Structure formats: structure tokens, C-alpha cells
Automatic annotation (TrEMBL):
Pfam family, one: DFP
Domain named DNA/pantothenate metabolism flavoprotein C-terminal: residues: 2-211
Name this polypeptide is given: Phosphopantothenoylcysteine decarboxylase
GO BP annotations listed: coenzyme A biosynthetic process
GO MF, one annotated term: catalytic activity
Amino acid sequence: MHVLLTAGPTYEPIDPVRFIGNHSTGKMGYALAAEFAQQGWQVTLVSGPTAQTITHPLVTVVPVQTAQQMYEAAAAVAPAADVWVFAAAVADYRPRTVAAEKIKKRDDGTDETLTIELVKNVDIAATLGQTKRAEQFSVGFALETQDELPNAQRKLQRKGFDLVVLNSLRDAGAGFRHDTNKITLVEASGVTTFELKPKADVARDIVSAILARLQPHVA
Ligand code: CTP
Ligand code: CA
């Protein structure tokens, strides 16, 4: 069995020295990769820039920077993967143009504000979702700060996910920059809530939930 995982942030360049990014550490995605490998799965981990490392004979890491690169790397693997897990915090927008040279202040009184026009990035999960075969299983993440459940349910439908892992930033110890996480699994048939746990234990919960749902799926 083969799982495609996306993890980490994406970096969208502004000029040669600056980018738009986010606080994703990649910890959750790498913990999932380790857990799948532990279970004997072949893992392709398409990873944005992170400090995480993983060395395992079953894990292939494909390092990328931008959302477009992450999409291309994921699309190359998706048809052959049994399960897709989109744990990356993909930048929704990128600068329309990337300046060839470092953007300089002018110091002439007209540089008090700077506007960078952004254009929408490809939605990796939603785009691949349109190619998903009946026997494939797709898992998304949703990080919300309000209207958590309705937002997660919308994402479930819109992106063709079979399961959404919901993180609320209102839960203490959950989300970015923590070694713990508190998740709710959202699927068409209902909602399952878990306690606050170390991310490795959360990864185990997520992988066993996926495996449990795969049995009827592949049968
Ligand atoms: N995702 C993706 N490609 C994008 C944006 C998001 O693959 N360009 C995936 C994420 O990896 C995650 C899921 O879609 O599994 C939901 O991401 P999220 O940012 O919560 O949803 P968005 O659809 O971008 O909505 P918003 O940020 O407006 O809440
Ligand atoms: Ca988003």
C-alpha cells in the first residue's frame, strides 16, 4: 500500500530574498509519514520547507517550495497512491510577479506603503480530488478559528475528502508550534472527538482511523 502525504508550509517568493509563508512546522505530516512507514506502507512525502527530517527505507521525501511545485509533485504520485493525506499548510495566494531584484525602499517620502498583488494558488487537494478513483481514499486537514464544524463539512464536500482532520485554534495546545494536538475527525457519517495528545499519538489515531475505514473501501 502506498500513501501520498503533503506536509509543511509552502513559500511563495516575493523577490530573491523574501517570501510569503506560514507557521506550519510540518510536525504533524512527518509524524504521519513515520506512522504509515511503521505500518509497512510505502510513503511519498511531498514536503514544503521545514526543519523536520525523516529517514526510513519506505519513505521518499520530495522537497518543494511553492504550492505549484507541491501540486506538480503530488499529481505525479497521486494516481499510484491508495491513500492521499493533505497535511500541508498551502499558501492560498502568491505574489502575481516575483521581483528579479531585491525590492528596495526609495526613502523619497512615497514609500510609506507597499502593495503586493496576490493571485490564487492551485488547490492541490480539490484538483486531485476530481481525479480520485472509487477505491482511493482522501484525507484533508482543516485549521479553523471559528464555525469549525460547518467549515470542515464544507471542505469535506468541496474537495472530495473521505475524512477531514479538524484542528481548532481555540483548543489550547492544538495547532502550530505545539508538540501536542487536539483533533476532531469529520466525515459524512458523523464526528469523532479526541483528547489533547502528543502529535505522535495523534498520528497513530489518524492512521488507525484511516485503516479502519479502508477495509470496507477496498473490499
Ligand atoms: N489545500 C490544498 N491546496 C491548497 C489549499 C489547501 O491542498 N491550495 C488542502 C490543505 O492541505 C488541507 C485542506 O486543503 O488538507 C484544507 O486547507 P484549508 O487551508 O483549511 O482550506 P482552504 O480551502 O484553503 O480554505 P480557507 O483557508 O479559506 O479556510
Ligand atoms: Ca487555506
